[in-house]
Amino acid sequence: MGTVVLTMKASVIEMVLVLLVTGIHSNKEMTKKIKRLKFNVPQINCDVKAGKIINPEFIVKCPAGCQDPKYHVYGTDVYASYSSVCGAAVHSGVLDNSGGKILVRKVAGQSGYKGSYSNGVQSLSLPRWRESFIVSESKPQKGVTYPSALTYSSSKSPAGKAGKCSRVISKPSELVNRQYCVLGDSVEINILTGQALLFVLFY
Q1: N or C: which end of the chain has fewer CB within 10 A?
Q2: What range(s) does the LCCL domain occupy (predicted)?
Q3: Which phi and psi angles does 136 have, rounded to 5°?
């Protein structure tokens, strides 16, 4: 009788151990599956401007080569949304020219943006702009859901969308007769005349 009781106890203990081991294994498998379910980080090109992206906060992946001066950046630390997102990331030091993931957060427009040379990128100055953004490392904040696909705004002006001048206006000054190319939504870009430098004015 005593032998039977001991055998039953041993069987029960064995079953409990099996269940514990199985449960631990299942939990590990679940943890692995959860880790695999990371959200898809959208990738953008070097020429994408922050103002074209409607999302107020997002994580994106930049390609290599965004240090190129053709990708214009306006401001220092806080950038006008007319800037290249990835160009600003390189200027700020968050990325190098090899690309990578960044966190972008939209903030209010500034009364002025100061240009500077940093990390191989020369940013330009602006008198003011309606919207700004800040770039940081791609560390997700707790409680924030980041989009796996970005929402882009559409250009109202066909000329602005095509990057062509809808009209050219002249603004004489004491130093030089400046001509401005009007691109779409009141964006006026100074056309180089004489020794004049490139200016961008917004109204």
Answers
A1: N
A2: 40-133
A3: -145, 180
